[in-house]
Design brief:
Oligomer: single chain
Number of helices: 6
Radius of gyration: 34 Å
Order of helices and strands: EEHEEEHHHHHEE
CATH superfamily of the largest domain: Multidrug efflux transporter AcrB transmembrane domain
Shape: rod-shaped
Helix content: 55-70%
Strand content: 5-15%
Number of strands: 7
Number of domains: 2
Low-confidence stretches: 290-295
Strand order of the largest sheet: 1-2-5
Largest sheet: 3 strands, antiparallel
Distance between the termini: 87 Å
CATH architecture of the largest domain: Up-down Bundle
Structural class: alpha+beta
CATH class of the largest domain: Mainly Alpha
């Protein structure tokens, strides 16, 4: 009798003694064969052998107590609940058509998982800090505005995930780090657009207004295309891919709000009260001169 006649194997408990057991279900052919075997071998052991790569290993060898018919078999004996579970798992795996070859096997415990989560969060925070330092050095006060907007974007993303009661996983942390990069790209586009307006000779107030207005179309197009990719992952993905897609899509929406609307509110709060604004702190702005040379302003 082979594993082809075994349809199911599940761990359970004996109804009389309440000791752990393994419950087998056989097909019609297996039930007839098993009835004949048990009738002729009462009091003897019946070995269940798992063959893999031509080598046999005894999984269990219970004693036949009586004739068993009907296709339902219960194996009991001195076994723990874990042993019953492992035996049932081995019996189910033994009926597979293809043998399993273990190349590498390791166990990830809760301590290692918590350590990976902690390292992922640290990478996001360190990435945020390095980006903030670079933005402040390169764009000065506007870099500070961008850094604050970036921090608000991260807070909004975490708040939305908390409202949805989402579980924070490693793919989600990776999507969070990606959201930071997407958000800072929008601020870079805005700042460079303001610099271009200043190079053309317009006033500071007009440069700020025009920079935000003209950068919005580019930011919207780039984020919509990225959002489409995220929605595709969310629709056709599963498991970790789907978790990544959820955080990715939410991060795009929060980044658009923080990079455009929140940072503009900060700029207007700082510079909007000044009636005659001659210059703004946005780093070096190179202006071409008529003779081909270049002049820089801050």
């Amino acid at each position: 009798m082979t594993g082809e006649n075994l349809t199911d194997a599940q761990p359970g408990f004996d109804g009389q003694t309440q000791e752990p057991s393994v419950n087998l279900t056989l097909d019609a052919k297996g039930a007839r064969i098993f009835r004949d075997i048990t009738r002729e071998n009462v009091g003897r052991r019946m070995a269940i052998v798992l063959f893999e790569k031509g080598r046999g290993e005894v999984v269990t060898a219970p004693v036949i107590r009586a004739e068993i018919g009907g296709g339902r078999v219960q194996i009991t004996g001195r076994m723990t609940t874990a042993e019953a579970h492992d035996t049932a798992l081995l019996l189910r795996a033994g009926s597979l058509a293809a043998p399993m070859e273990i190349i590498e096997e390791f166990t990830v415990g809760p301590t290692l998982g918590a350590d990976n989560i902690e390292r992922g969060i640290d990478s996001v925070l360190w990435g945020l800090a390095v980006i903030a330092i670079f933005m402040c050095l390169y764009y000065l006060l506007f870099g500070l505005f961008s850094s604050v907007a970036l921090a608000v974007n991260l807070l909004l993303l975490v708040a939305v995930l908390s409202m949805l009661q989402a579980t924070l996983t490693l793919p989600g942390i990776a999507a969070m780090a990606l959201a930071i990069g997407v958000a800072i790209d929008s601020n870079v586009l805005i700042n460079e657009r303001i610099r271009e307006e200043l190079r053309s000779g317009v006033s500071a107030q007009v440069a700020i207004h025009t920079g935000y207005e003209r950068a919005w179309a580019t930011i919207l197009d780039s984020n919509v295309t990225t959002l489409i990719a995220g929605l595709a992952l969310l629709t056709f993905g599963s498991g970790p891919v789907r978790g990544f897609a959820v955080v990715h899509c939410i991060g795009i929406l929060t980044s658009m709000f923080s990079a455009v609307f929140f940072s503009r509110a900060l700029v207007n709060l700082w510079y909007g009260r000044r009636k005659r604004l001659k210059s703004i702190s946005i780093g070096q702005v190179w202006k071409p001169q008529a003779d081909g040379a270049a002049a820089k302003t801050n």
